[in-house]
Specification:
alpha/beta; Rossmann fold; Beta-Lactamase; binds adenosine-5'-diphosphate; histidine kinase; transferase
């Protein structure tokens, strides 16, 4: 910088100076000069009504902005205008003479009169707006055209109306007002309004000492109201604050105290048609601002004052809330819990509601469960009774190994009531020969989630045995992983014994029947045997002769011996067949080729056929599958059918006298039929009945036994009459393995 020349420094200075000046210029151009408003109050600043009006005015100016406000309080109540006007003129002239005012706002009638009187000197040409003045005060006054304002409207009438609503039996009105010009003026207005209600007795206390007023209002009878109107000065001339008076009277009074000033409400009065000074001030302020800005002012019709009620006072003087008119505004009502904490209460209610719903659902659920449990218990009891009555043991076994069994069930297996039960313990009681079949049946039921049915033997600890029939079914639980098998078991030992006895008897009967059958054929069989025996004897005698003559041709001898051997075999076959039929052997099942059975029988009946003059023709299908059965019993059936056919044909002359035997495979069954050409069946349905016989020497048991044999082989035996004469019997047996497969085994 040291090297800068003085000329350079001057340039910089000028540059900055210009910049600064330009900024000032811009600022002054953007900010217009403020509007100047002078507020002139008749009363002193401490009066609450004045404070309220002032607050309203200031709020209106603040809202506009850029308004410079000056305030003067003449306090004409204490310093009357008559005496102090001169001094005030001097004072104002001194202060505001040099200022260019844009607006003068006057609050109070005394000041309005003062301003109009000294306007030329003090505020020439400045528009004047007034407020805080009762309408009737202006009635005799002619205002200059640029003086305007909003009048105060104390609504005494509506206040009395409100008192009549809150105190329906109202009879007396005690009017409290002061001695100042303002007090007297509004007091008289109130009395004029009260005069319109002749039913009300009015007592004015404007001349009563203040202390006495307080004493008097303490003992007022019911159906009385205190009307506090205004008291800037009491009867002795002492300055009073009207709100303070309102408070002291309200505190002392035995009856409700009414007022027309809103700011008295918080001091304890019950209410009235309330004048809101702050709103009044704001209204004037807004109007003044409009005029300052050159806008047309809104019409200044004073609105009627609303009914406003002090809720606390309502309670204090025991006025029922129901008497409060619906269009009245209630203040100082303590907020309800709901108004204070709506969010919290909503939350709590929501929680309680949700909880209640949950509890209700839970109760319903518990109720349902109790009902279900009761029903289950009843059902279990009923089932238990039924099961006990039927001799059934109930049990439940789940795959995890738990087993439950009723006492009846435990007794079946010889378990004590307190014994621990599991799958292995029960299996241990099952007869070893039946264990695998039982396990297989259980496995099948579990795999298919189906039924379980089984009859097996139980070996009791004392060594005795009993038969048990078990029936059950699978129940899947939860996601289907847990499976339970539940069912019943029953002692069927007696039934099984009876069945066994019946089986034995049947076998006995069957044997007797066979013996009888063979006996029937004794003659023919003897004849049949005679043939090979005669041939053997003949051949043997011839051979002996050849040997005796010594002319034996070895080839001829060999042939003879071959014949002898063949005849011997034939005779042996016949004897073996008879032996097999009459032998009393236990029934045994094996795979049997029905062709063999047919051929064996044919060998036995051949002689009988010849004796009866009957031909036997066969139509036998080759490679028939095997059947599972007892070959002797199957021979017995076939023999019975063929002998019956011979019998039938013997009894009537028939042509052809033939028995046709056929065998075939029909739909996985091996079918064998015996057809004759006799007189046909006397009764297709009855021929299988026991003891049904049309023969003089018949027992009527043959076909009954034959059918039962076939049925125990899992097959059927049926009979029918043929349309072209004769009867046909056919039996069907389930096919087992094809014969060619069997051959490869
Ligand atoms: P039984 O031969 O001792 O009478 P079955 O039970 O063998 O007893 O036969 C019962 C009856 O059925 C016979 O008495 C007969 O009347 C009738 N019957 C059986 N087979 C034939 C047949 N092929 N033709 C006509 N009737 C028959």
């Amino acid at each position: 910088m040291g090297r800068n020349s003085p000329a350079m420094s001057q340039v910089f200075f000028l540059f900055f100076a210009f910049g600064w000046l330009a900024q000032i210029g811009i600022a002054s151009a953007s900010e217009p000069s403020p509007k100047r408003v002078l507020l002139l109050y008749s009363e002193r600043a401490g009066i609450p009504a004045i404070q309220a009006i002032d607050a309203g005015l200031v709020e209106a100016f603040a809202a506009r902005g850029n308004v410079e406000v000056f305030s003067e309080y003449f306090d004409f109540a204490r310093f009357p205008a008559k005496k102090h006007a001169e001094g005030q003129v001097e004072h104002l002239h001194d202060r505001y003479g040099g200022l260019k005012l844009d607006k003068v706002i006057v609050v109070g009638f005394e000041t309005l009169k003062f301003v109009i009187q000294h306007r030329e000197k003090l505020f020439p040409g400045v528009p004047v707006t007034f407020c805080g003045i009762e309408r009737h005060l202006l009635s005799g006054t002619t205002l200059p055209p640029d003086v305007n304002g909003v009048v105060l409207n104390y609504d005494f009438r509506r206040t009395i109306e409100l008192a009549l609503k809150l105190q329906p039996g109202l009879k007396d009105v005690v009017c409290v007002f002061g001695s100042s010009a303002f007090d007297q003026q509004v007091g008289h207005d109130a009395l004029a309004a009260l005069a319109e209600y002749p039913q009300l007795r009015v007592r004015r206390l404007d001349t009563t000492p203040y202390a006495e007023i307080i004493e008097q209002v303490r003992h007022l009878p019911r159906n009385t109201m205190v009307f506090h109107i205004s008291m800037l000065r009491d009867s002795s001339g002492q300055t009073r604050l009207s709100p303070r008076v309102a408070e002291e009277i309200s505190n002392a009074s035995s009856v409700p105290v009414y007022s027309v000033a809103l700011h008295h409400l918080e001091r304890g009065v019950i209410g009235g048609a309330m004048m809101d000074y702050a709103a009044h001030g704001k209204e004037i302020g807004n109007e003044a601002v409009a005029r300052l800005d050159g806008r047309p002012p809104t019409p200044n019709e004073a609105a009627s004052s609303p009914w406003i009620i002090n809720w606390q006072a309502l309670k204090k003087w025991k006025i029922p809330e129901a008497l409060v008119p619906s269009d009245a505004l209630i203040k100082y009502k303590p907020p309800t819990l709901w108004e204070e904490h709506p969010g919290l209460i909503t939350g709590i209610l929501a929680v309680v509601l949700i909880q209640s719903i949950l509890i209700a659902l839970l109760l319903v659920n518990i109720g349902n469960r109790c009902r279900a449990e009761r029903a289950l218990a009843e059902s279990e009891e009923r089932m238990g009774l039924a099961a006990a009555a039927a001799g059934l043991g109930m049990w439940v076994w789940d795959v995890r190994g738990n087993t439950w069994m009723t006492e009846q069930g435990r007794a079946l297996f010889g378990f004590k009531p307190e014994a621990e039960l599991d799958y292995a313990a029960i299996l241990d009681r099952v007869h070893p020969e039946d264990r695998s079949a039982r396990e297989l049946a259980i496995k099948r039921a579990l795999d298919t989630r189906g039924k379980y049915e089984m009859e097996y033997r139980v070996q009791l600890p004392d060594g005795s045995m009993r038969w048990v029939s078990a029936r059950g079914h699978c129940v899947a639980e939860g996601n289907g992983k847990t499976v339970k098998l539940l069912g019943v078991s029953m002692d069927i030992t007696h039934r099984k014994q009876a069945e066994l006895e019946a089986l034995q008897q049947r076998a006995e009967l069957s044997h007797l029947s066979r013996v009888a059958l063979v006996g029937e054929m004794a003659t023919t069989l003897a004849h049949e045997l005679n043939q090979p025996l005669t041939a053997i004897v003949t051949n043997a005698s011839a051979a002996q002769r050849f040997i005796a003559h010594d002319d034996m041709d070895p080839d001829e001898l060999r042939e003879m011996l071959t014949d002898i051997a063949a005849d011997g075999r034939r005779a042996g076959d016949i004897i073996r067949g008879i032996k097999g039929m009459v032998r009393k052997v236990a029934s045994e099942r094996r795979k049997v080729d029905m062709i063999d059975v047919i051929n064996d029988v044919l060998r036995l009946v051949r002689a009988d056929a010849l004796a009866n003059g009957c031909a036997i023709t066969t139509h036998l299908e080759k490679n028939l599958p095997l059947v599972l059965g007892d070959p002797v019993q199957l021979q017995q059936v076939l023999l019975n059918l063929i002998v019956n056919a011979f019998d039938a044909m013997r009894r009537v002359p028939c042509e052809p006298c033939r028995v046709e035997i056929a065998s075939s495979l029909d739909n996985e069954s091996v079918e064998v039929s015996v057809r004759d050409f006799g007189p046909g069946l006397p009764d297709e349905d009855r021929v299988f009945e026991r003891f049904f016989s049309t023969k003089s020497d018949g027992m009527g048991m043959g076909l009954a036994i034959a059918r039962s044999i076939i049925e125990t082989h899992g097959g059927t035996l049926t009979a029918e009459n043929m349309s072209d004469g004769g009867a046909r019997f056919w039996l069907r047996l389930p096919a087992q393995v094809p014969i060619h497969e069997e051959a490869t085994v």
